Amino acid sequence: MRAKIMLVLGTRPQIIKSAPIIHASKAAGVFDLRVVHTGQHYDYEMSKVFFGELRLPSPDANLDVGSGTHAWQTAEMMKRLEEVIVRERPDCVLVPGDTNSTLAGAVVAAKLAVPVAHLEAGARSYEMTMPEEINRVLTDHTSSLLFAPTRNCATNLAKEGIPRSRIHLTGDTHFDAFCAHAEQIADQDLSAFDMDRPFAYVTVHRAENVDDERNLKQILHGLLRLKGLRVVFAVHPRTKTQIRRMGLLLKLKASGNISIQRPVTYLQSLALAWNSSVVVTDSGGLQREAFWLKRPCVVLRATTEWPETLSGRRSVLASPNAGQIVRKVRDMISSDSKRPKRMVPLCARKNAFGDGHASENVLRELRRFVSTL
Question: Collapsing DSSP states into helix, strand and coil, what is residue 120?
Fold first, then answer.
């Protein structure tokens, strides 16, 4: 009888980094893999379209939790997940990333004495005011299996006293997804984005930037000051709500240089990053994708859990200060103009995030672990 693995996810980055696991598991036929979607990202652009684009089967269960405060959302997920885990009785619960869905899945499974495996373990910004950092640390210290995407992540876990027998350096399944779709980037139709001149591709969604009105204002004023540079701003629904509440949405639309866009698909996002002059984001996923695409990136944060991307000054950090953002965007574009043009994306070549076969490493370690239960 095949071991049953329950994969708990809830946001579009989790769908992306889980896709290689789902495909590899199906191909190997070793596990009975059940996918549970918490509903943390619940609208079409933020969730369902990614299942279709990445050719994934529909989730086996959808908890339809929706939005709310961190405490309410996590608690509601835990209540509904408990029912599913008790009913399904998985041999192991696999949780990717650093969201409320990650933490909810880990805590509920651990309380029910079901082993937890954490995909993307050991990432640390060491900024405990970030909800994601809290989720990472608590999940790691609840897990029986920790899949570290980089050597730095594995080192972080060991420093925190986690037994080395639990830590497995697998590579990053997000990089697996990138490699699987890199050849499709050039085929994306971006005519709707009117890219007739150099542009910055921008996303903002982190709580410390969106929920803090001062920080969000500084970021938006920085974008408004990027005169002469088109800004393609793919706006997260929660970010748009905040911008509208602050009375700045019409100002952005009337600026002449900022194009407000709905959330884009995974492949569209890769294509926009690849064609941009610079990526400006607070997303850890897009930060890594810019690194793999060899595009300059300004990370709208004081710290990052992915220091590997800062090598060679491909990415730089920028605090939410309008002047600093403008200066660093200009500096990154200027520096990039001196590099060889149109370098191929960093795929099919080993780097700090692995060799594109992390999902196979994860499944091998999972198989070894459940065989001992």
Answer: coil
pLDDT at 339: 67
pTM: 0.94
Residues 151 and 227 in one domain: no
Are 222 and 325 members of one domain? yes
Could you tell me which of 177, 243, 239 has the C-alpha nearest to residue 203? Answer: 239
Phi, psi of 3 (to 5 degrees): -65, 145
> Does residue 53 have a pLDDT over 80?
yes
With cut-offs at 50, 70 and 90, classify the pLDDT of residue 319: very high
* 187 contacts 283 by C-beta, under 8 angstroms: no
Chain segment 195-240, per-residue pLDDT in tens: 778 999 999 999 999 999 999 999 999 999 998 899 999 998 889 9
Q: Are 260 and 231 in contact (CB under 8 A)?
A: no
Look up the CATH number of the domain holding residue 39: 3.40.50.2000
Active site residues: 205
Residue the block writes with tokens 């499944």: 363
Tens of pLDDT along 155-184? 999 999 999 999 999 999 999 999 999 989
- Residue 155 tokens read as 């080192």
Do residue 277 and residue 301 come from a single domain?
A: yes
Confidence category of residue 340, pLDDT binned at 50, 70, 90: low
- Sheet containing 315-317: which strands, arranged edge to edge? 258-261, 230-234, 199-203, 278-281, 297-299, 315-317
Contact between 141 and 160 (Cβ < 8 Å): yes
User: Are both 162 and 17 inside the same structural domain?
Assistant: yes
Outline where the chain has alpha helix (H). Answer: 12-28, 48-53, 70-88, 100-111, 131-140, 151-159, 173-181, 207-210, 213-224, 237-245, 249-253, 266-275, 284-293, 322-336, 358-370
Give the number of domains in the chain.
2
Do 31 and 7 form a contact (C-beta atoms < 8 A)? no
Domain of 194 in residue numbering reads as 187-336
